[in-house]
Design a protein that fits this description.
about 25% helix; alpha+beta
Amino acid sequence: MNENRPLTILIAALGGEGGGVLNDWIVGCALDQGLPVQATSVPGVAQRTGSTSYYVEMMRSPAPDGAQPVFALSPMPGGVDVVVASELLEAARTIERGFVH
């Protein structure tokens, strides 16, 4: 495992199922530990419908003083460490898109 590579997490959910809450918890935990973190989301077609993806990148250890890591805004196939899905269909979509290997 490369300590300089960020830990990447993809949360695949449907609107209204709590994916955003889980995303916020992960980001909050990372910040509490002093880890640099960034989270982005791609919402579904409406607040309570549609597939919504949340993507988190965080460093595995605190950054040295003055260091500012650069994070990606979206996941790359084959580059996701952890995939969490709230529904079987969402899990299948992450597999189809190449995020699970």
